[in-house]
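quick one, 383 residues, struct below
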Amino acid sequence: MRKICVVVTARPSYSRIKTALRAIDQHPELELQLVVAASALLERYGTAVNYIEKDGFRIAARVFNVLEGENLTAQAKTTGLGILELSTVFERLAPDAVVTIADRFETMATAIAASYMNIPLIHIQGGEVTGNIDEKVRHAITKLADLHLVASDKARERVIRMGENPECVINTGCPSIDLAAEIEDSDGLDFNPFQKYGGVGGEIDLLADYIVVMQHPVTTEYADSRKHIEETLYAIYELQYPTFWFWPNVDAGSDGTSKGIRSFRERYEIEHVHFFKNMEPTDFLKLLKHSRCLIGNSSVGIRECAYLGVPVVNIGSRQNGRSRGPNVIDVSYNRAEIKNAIEDQCLNGYYSSAQVYGRGASGVQIAEVISKWTPKFHKVITF
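---
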């Protein structure tokens, strides 16, 4: 059997790959080697590893490599530590191929370690365009990768234009859309988020209309992260809509985002807001599906919400250039713009499904492509 090592480094990465993990694990010609690393292991970022184990996946290795600080230096050193630790893991597991997911800065460690060890690299979700350091990371990994499983036709075109062999660039769609397809017919919430996930803040009436906020720092604008989040906080405070708010990820600037939230909570009564660190992927998508609107800068607004038709207010530059459906309104870091856009989206209501990133069968297709692919470390460049 062909040994396929998949490295998950953060909570969103698990959502992006869960159905593909399931399909690889169940494929008769593939053996899944799952490595969990970086913030996916840490309690302060939601301990995604707990949900991974609960879903029945066996973890082959854990890599603790996150350096505290939430700044650019810590981000660079976290990547360096990842290269050191993952090299040891790959030597022990001896995989036939390594899979790296999307474009978070930690994924660079996976790509470099595998490439320097002559292990064929499979990259999922390359070829997209955004703001943030993710842009550089994504395209750098494209040049290191040997097989590209992209999520849209436009992404495939971009990867080919970068000189990659068209035969090794396949549009499989995004596995996160598979999860959205699984819950699109759900009728309300079938779980109590307060009992199941705890969190802090006001206890919202689950029968009331609510909104969801998920806003991360932008690494190329990390010094302004506190100012950015305060604009969103004021908009949400003034609207007084019941709100589920999710904690930021580990990117440089998250300390400023977190401090901004804590300081705001100390100054103002925001009993209409409840804060969570994380949720199981399907629970989170159910929460989104039945919300009035998602606010922030997470790619879930661009991907899953497009498929589910959930209105989105996208703030700032983090998702610049990424293909999107009609469900998204883009605004700057300005409380008045944010507030007005939320009100407009809530009045508009749900949109028709936009299948920009797939139709809900990506995981199985990814496993099938990998099983038939002949791994090659030396690739043909088509410049």
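The chain has two domains: 2-174+359-372, 182-348.
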